[in-house]
Design brief:
- The complex is a heterodimer of chains A (258) and B (150).
- Chain A is α+β, with helices and mostly antiparallel strands.
- The longest helix of chain A is centred in the C-terminal third of the chain and has 20 residues.
- A five-stranded antiparallel sheet of chain A has the order 4-5-8-6-7. A four-stranded antiparallel sheet of chain A has the order 9-10-11-12, with helices on both faces. In chain A, strands 1-3-2 form a three-stranded parallel sheet, covered by helices on one side.
- The termini of chain A are far apart.
- The mean pLDDT of chain A is 94.
- Chain A is built from eleven helices and twelve strands.
- Chain A folds into three domains: 47 residues, Uridine Diphospho-n-acetylenolpyruvylglucosamine Reductase, domain 2 (2-Layer Sandwich); 105 residues, Uridine Diphospho-n-acetylenolpyruvylglucosamine Reductase, domain 3, CATH 3.30.465.10; 93 residues, 2-Layer Sandwich (Enolase-like, domain 1).
- A five-stranded mixed sheet of chain B has the order 2-1-5-3-4, with helices on one face.
- Chain B folds into two domains: 73 residues, Ubiquitin-like (UB roll); 74 residues, Orthogonal Bundle (DNA polymerase, domain 1).
- With 150 residues, chain B is α+β, with helices and mostly antiparallel strands.
- The longest helix of chain B is centred in the C-terminal third of the chain and has 15 residues.
- In chain B, strand 1 and strand 2 form a beta hairpin.
- Chain B contains five helices and five strands; from the N terminus they run E-E-H-E-E-E-H-H-H-H.
- Helices cover 37% and strands 15% of the residues of chain B.
- The chains are: A alpha+beta (258), B alpha+beta (150).
Chain lengths: 258, 150
């Protein structure tokens, strides 16, 4: 990637000031995709020294700084033990330890990558994102917001209340992107279900959530397969994904209902 | 732009391009043990330690290494000699292209995991590809190295 200047702001506010109104400035989170960027940037604004690599446990929330790496979701006790290890499980087989040491939570969420396991899990958890300018908003709303606003993702907030989580994905080989992924999170009698890598972006499966709330795991699988859209890509066909969706969602729901 | 890093225990003052990857900066400065494989953070052959943590140097911006410690296989001579001997003894050396990155990753693993079994070894090293397909003999060699290191 061609870059003219490389800056390391000391806070998200400073980062926002650097990118605001400058279409030629790009934020760098993990940096894993820098290599693949086809266009050059005047200014790279690296968040590595902006104080965003924290994991903070509060009474009812876990706050995950945007620069927390996937590896820390696996190794830091606060993240590893969160919701039955859901966050650690959803990233644990992604490429290798080296890549998980650089890929960040914020880079994943802000990039709105449709293949991202983590986004599917966060959607099922009912996560909020906190933006430096835009403030706190539900992840669903952030993902649906197509207007590209210049902003800095500061942290992701997930509820830390009694809950059970289950993770399911299918890959052609273990370290590959998922053919399909699914997460279920149960709080009391309510179950939230998200399905991603369809290959479109992760979505909540509302009919499946209703079936799961009524205790019907296989019904939830069938509902998710019926209500969501699936597409073809080099990993699988839409029809195959629909079949896989029914099975993965049913398994995830069985796990959280058990 | 100028960066100052600690390379294998010695201070290095380098002029790097703002958009340059650490892999390219290392190779441009003669650290040729760090191999260019896939160049897309998928194969592990460019693995170096950044402040002790294994990272794919092809995906780390060189400016990010400013003020930090970078360790390549040259900085791990004792471990490299012992693991290299195990790789040779188990017939796992094959073409050798992936070996420097593998050695760095195995050293990181041995520091991070107390007593990894075969499944834990395979999981930790899933990001180190070997196109010769030498995984079975590599795993034997790594287990032997870990046993001898104990």
């Amino acid at each position: 990637m061609a870059v003219r200047a490389y800056l390391k702001p000391r806070s998200p506010a400073e980062a926002l000031a650097l990118i605001e109104g400058d279409e030629r400035a790009a934020l760098v989170g993990g940096g894993a995709y820098l290599r693949l960027a086809s266009r050059g940037y005047e200014t790279a604004v690296d968040l590595c020294e902006a104080g965003l690599d924290y994991l903070r446990e509060e009474s009812e929330a876990l706050r995950i700084g945007a620069m927390v790496t996937y590896r820390r979701l696996e190794t830091d006790p606060a993240a590893r033990n969160y919701c039955g290890g859901l966050l650690a499980r959803c990233v644990g087989n992604i490429v290798g330890v080296q890549v998980r040491n650089i890929v960040t939570v914020g880079g994943t969420v802000a990039g709105r990558y449709a293949f991202a396991n983590l986004t599917t899990a966060l959607l099922a958890l009912g996560a909020d994102v906190v933006l430096e300018r835009g403030g706190r908003k539900p992840l669903e709303q952030f993902l649906a917001d197509k207007a590209l606003v210049r902003d800095v993702l500061v942290e992701v907030v997930v509820p830390a209340v009694p809950q059970r989580g289950a993770w399911q994905d299918l890959t052609r080989v273990r370290a590959d992107f998922a053919v399909l992924n699914a997460a279920a999170v149960r709080r009391g009698d309510a179950v939230r279900i998200a399905v991603g890598a369809r290959p479109g972006a992760a979505r909540l499966a509302f009919a499946a959530m209703a079936a799961a709330g009524a205790g019907d795991a296989s019904g939830a699988g069938a509902a998710a397969a019926a209500e969501l859209d699936f597409g073809d890509d080099l990993r699988a066909s839409a029809a195959y994904r629909r079949r896989v969706c029914g099975t993965l969602v049913a398994r995830a729901v069985e796990e959280v209902l058990a | 732009m100028n960066i100052s890093l600690e390379l294998n225990g010695r201070r290095a003052d380098w002029d790097v391009e703002p958009g340059e990857a650490l892999l390219d900066a290392l190779r441009r400065h003669g650290v040729l043990s760090v191999k260019r494989g896939c160049d897309t953070a998928s194969c592990g052959t460019c693995t170096v330690l950044l402040d002790g943590m294994p990272v794919p140097s092809c995906a780390v911006p060189a400016p990010r290494a400013d003020g930090r410690a970078v360790t390549t296989v040259e900085g791990l001579p004792g471990e490299a000699a012992r693991l290299g001997a195990c790789l040779a003894a188990e017939g796992a050396d094959q073409c050798g292209f992936c070996a420097p990155g593998l050695v760095v990753a195995v050293v990181a693993m041995s520091r991070e995991l107390a007593d990894p079994d075969e499944a834990a070894i395979n999981h930790y090293l899933a990001g180190n590809l070997c196109r010769c397909g030498g995984y079975v003999s590599q795993t034997r060699a790594i287990r032997r190295y870990l046993q001898e290191a104990r």
